[in-house]
Amino acid sequence: MSAERTQNLRGRVAIVTGGGNGIGGAIASELAARGASVAVNDIDADRAHRKAAEIGDGALATPGDASSSADVAAAVAAAIARFGKIDILVNNAGMDQAVSILDLAEEDWDRLIAVNLKSAFLFSKAVLPGMIERGYGRIICTSSVVAHRGAMNGGIHYGTTKGGMLGFARTLARQMAKTGVTVNAIAPGVVDTDLIRTHMKPEVREQVVADIPLGRLADPAEIGAAVAFLASDEAAYITGATLDVNGGFWIG
What we know:
The radius of gyration is 17 Å and the shape is globular. Helices cover 49% and strands 14% of the residues. It has ten helices and seven strands. It has helices at residues 3-6, 22-33, 45-55, 69-83, 106-134, 146-149, 156-176, 194-199, 202-211, 220-231, and strands at residues 13-17, 37-41, 59-61, 88-91, 137-142, 181-188, 242-245. α5 links the parallel β4 and β5 (137-142). By secondary structure, the protein is of the alpha/beta class. A seven-stranded parallel sheet has the order 3-2-1-4-5-6-7, sandwiched between helices. It has a single domain, classed as NAD(P)-binding Rossmann-like Domain (Rossmann fold).
């Protein structure tokens, strides 16, 4: 790959929610590697600062709760104060909870819906005025393979939010189509993150891998590359789409 192609986001500014580690951390790193300045938003301030320090120049930690309108406003304001604009928003903040609907407390439902879905609404609403004014923007929402096939181990509220992300992205894509802002979603399968390595039992991992036609879990960097493509000018004619990155785990 040529140096020009690997730097296809030079001059762009991105904000990645849930960007401190895992999939979000890989996305933040990949966008930065392709030349973008990156604001790393994470509810864990230490994670946000560590990731920004790891990326180095051109990165900024903007810690806060992505489901809080006040924290979102502060994060967006900090990013604009540092970089002057926001071109790319990656709505990646999320949490999971493996629990049956029969054992699911109302407050847990509300919290997960807020973190996984409300956050996309808040951040998108906050960055869209500037994008529309400049006639350019890329919004990418992290959904999941469970939006297609249902949550296997996670709770019903998790599966609901990931399906909701697809509806959110498609509807916003239609609303923004004349403004120069594209909106798309990615739907990762099972990704080989620290969380999966820590909490997935070896026998469960073996079964999951056996069910994936490509025969392995995704590398987080592969999810980052998919997001970077949708954030690039090469994807200018793509909006309202879902990019499935799951090794064939779900083929629809």
